[in-house]
Amino acid sequence: MLKVPDHQVAGHQGSHGQPGPLIDDSGRFYKPLQDDDRGAIEAAFYTSFSSNTRVPDHIRRFFPVFHGTQLIEASDGSGQRPHLVLEDVVSGRSHPSVMDVKIGSRTWYPEASEDYIQRCFEKDRKFSSLCLGFRISGLQLYGSEESELWKPERKLVQNLSADGVRVVLKKFVSSNSPIDPNLNPDFAFASSVYGGSSGILAQLLELKSWFEDQTMYHLNSCSVLMVYEKKKVLKGGSSDAEVKLIDFAHVTEGNGIIDHNFVGGLCSLIKFISEILTSPDECTTKVCLQNSDNKNEILTSSNECTTKVCL
Amino acid sequence: MLKVPDHQVAGHQGSHGQPGPLIDDSGRFYKPLQDDDRGAIEAAFYTSFSSNTRVPDHIRRFFPVFHGTQLIEASDGSGQRPHLVLEDVVSGRSHPSVMDVKIGSRTWYPEASEDYIQRCFEKDRKFSSLCLGFRISGLQLYGSEESELWKPERKLVQNLSADGVRVVLKKFVSSNSPIDPNLNPDFAFASSVYGGSSGILAQLLELKSWFEDQTMYHLNSCSVLMVYEKKKVLKGGSSDAEVKLIDFAHVTEGNGIIDHNFVGGLCSLIKFISEILTSPDECTTKVCLQNSDNKNEILTSSNECTTKVCL
Fold this sequence. Notes:
Chain A has 311 residues and is of the alpha+beta class. Chain A contains 11 helices and 11 strands. At the A-B interface, α4 and α10 of A face α4 and α10 of B.
């Protein structure tokens, strides 16, 4: 009954004797509880959040539904293990294009161990988090052919420059091949995926309003997952675009202070997406000064307008 | 003609052979150009900003008017030295209550030297910046008597907890003595200083909208100065509340990315001020987890409602 999910783009995948998530055919997602504090923190967050009457319904829909924890056989055959039982956010979609964006220029937090802080501090500087206020943690994009799927390695997308991110955000909503480096993304579906009253931008703005006000939780190192149904859009149907927040293994109490790190990063992502809707062809002449050794011609050559990039 | 300003609450003050700012009686403020990069960066920012046609007028008013640079005799008698000639933002006010709030959970930036980054990183964690998204860098508050002026030392205010900041923000707009530790701040002038269509909150929200959109400048380590005329308010007059941005010695180019660090911190400050207007008596039961050795009874004892503080 349980199987490995097809559409996971980031996070811990089962490998080398490490259990990964599982799904069933009733729309549930089973995430193994991590042994250290992270498992306990994520379970505590879901428990708190799901019974918190101060969370409005229109915000609750951005979080996976929580069905408690359950002992099940781990995916790596290591025996029974407690799993979080969550809503499978891509359940019922046949060709979901998915992007996982880790929000915040900082993934660490004051309460963390010194060792964890130092590791995150270095990563945030190395990847695009510090520069952009977020980093793309993973994605999968379907092309116009069902068989065409672009699922770049995480290391290729998490240290993109601003221009690299612009290209990927355009590819995400394009009708032409995401793989062919000679094609400029046509962002043909920008208005149906990002735009409109139920599009991704509107959903992100709704989240932003709540984060400017809520002082209960700080969602350190949490991701915004953006999903839509590519097959339907290609046939002229609705995009069924959806935003979900995932990964709460580093949530801390807000203690009466807004999550300003999350707000800042979310505002930055919102600005990138707004620009694709309002001025998609504007030339970018200056870019992120961040250095990276990772040259990636696929991502840069499709943006002819850019005069300088630092991928 | 030139004299040392009466109402400076933060920043480099003239001392120990270090030149400080000067003012004249025509409303100009002379800020000595720092010898290192900082002076050049601040002059470059003012030059760029003052001629930047993409800055709307309603935003320009939040920045001191720039009158170029001028060689004048330094305040410490060390001879002629170039100074930035700026608008004196408290000129014409006899009893200005002033608060300097350094915005951002992070005062460093990727382009800075490793040494500078490490120093700021430690300071941001030690002071309230990391926790709150800003820190109070200095303030002066007049009481109901003209002679009564509270001007706490910088080290007393820059590492306040969330509750300490709430108390100071209330004291800032109170009619009773800011010095007497047995008095709860009555925030009698909250609506006339923070509230209304021309109050401080409205001005901060206007700034926020611009910062969510502008990608030209990153105002690292910049301060929001909040000023109003205490004497006039005590007599039932208008508060003449004003917000100004100051200190641009660490500005960097935005390169097409919003200043997400500034946006996050500004949103946090806005939330603190909004709460004083909308739910000033709400008890705060959880507070900033930041540690500090600096016990300050004056600031904590006046907030009876608070169950735990970490000043």
